[in-house]
Design brief:
Layout: E1 4-13, E2 16-26, E3 31-35, H1 42-50, E4 57-62, E5 65-66, H2 72-78, E6 80-82, H3 95-106, H4 111-124, H5 140-153, E7 158-162, H6 170-185, E8 189-193, H7 197-201, E9 206-211, E10 214-219, H8 221-225, H9 228-233
Parallel strand pairs: 3-8, 3-9, 6-7, 7-8
Antiparallel strand pairs: 1-2, 1-4, 4-5, 9-10
Helix pairs in contact: 3-4, 3-5, 4-5
Length: 239
């Protein structure tokens, strides 16, 4: 049984159908990469999984349970953590306070336990030296790290990463990918939307490509990246 399964999920905004009958599944411990051109419906798909948007049609099943009507905080507490494309920390709070808040409210941990979780996650994500720094003053790389850390502090079983390498230099992206590899090695299940394709390919077990809200291709990374339709639609290469 997959950890997450979407069954013919659709979402429209007015007359625009942003997600159109998408069906996919993710096994425990797997990393699924999501590719697609701008406007393909990738972030909307994440919003439907996390509960930030309501499904019009179809079902979202997590851990064998239908969570289609659960609210975002209920899904978070069930084990679905996510990062956002634009980091959204509590800027006036310290990095440590951001993580304690995530652990208390996302994982429902008592404060003392949340402190231990925050320290552990700070160490995992390379933010320990910045623990007492206001989150609003971090560099872009460390804001991205904090976005990842806040998701991890909720103690997820499924981690949704939305363009977490976007805007970083090559060296910074490599550092972040190394941290994600360590997280993957501990058995974390991940779905990762990313335009930095080489970063995604270094971790993903499978790829799922969206175009205009519909599945264009799915499969092993090598096969998907060599698919003529994917190369034409996503990379602008005529085959």
């Amino acid at each position: 049984m997959p950890l997450l399964a979407l069954h013919a999920v659709s979402k429209s905004f007015g007359a625009l159908k942003v997600t159109d009958g998408v069906t996919l599944s993710v096994a425990e411990g797997e990393t699924l990469g999501i590719l697609g051109p701008n406007g393909a419906g990738k972030t909307t798909l994440f919003n439907l999984i996390s509960g930030d948007a309501r499904v019009d049609q179809g079902r979202v099943v997590y851990g064998g349970q239908d969570i289609t009507r659960l609210k975002p905080h209920q899904r978070c507490r069930a084990g679905i953590g996510r990062s956002y494309q634009v980091p959204q920390p509590f800027g006036a709070m310290t990095v440590f306070e951001n993580l304690v808040t995530a652990a208390c409210f996302g994982a429902r941990q008592p404060e003392r336990e949340a402190w231990h979780t925050a320290h552990e996650v700070l160490d995992q994500t390379g933010l320990l030296a910045h623990a007492n720094q206001p989150a609003g003053g971090l560099t872009l790389l460390n804001r991205k790290r904090l976005e990842l850390a806040r998701a991890l502090a909720t103690r997820p079983k499924l981690l949704l990463l939305d363009e977490i390498a976007g805007g970083l230099t090559e060296h910074e992206a490599q550092q972040l990918v190394a941290e994600l590899r360590r997280i993957k090695a501990r058995g974390m299940t991940m779905i990762w939307i990313e335009h930095v394709v080489h970063a995604l390919l270094s971790i993903a077990d499978r790829l799922f490509v969206l175009d205009f809200g519909r599945k264009l291709a799915e499969g092993l990374p090598g096969a998907v990246m060599n698919d003529p339709q994917v190369r034409r639609v996503y990379m602008g290469i005529e085959v």
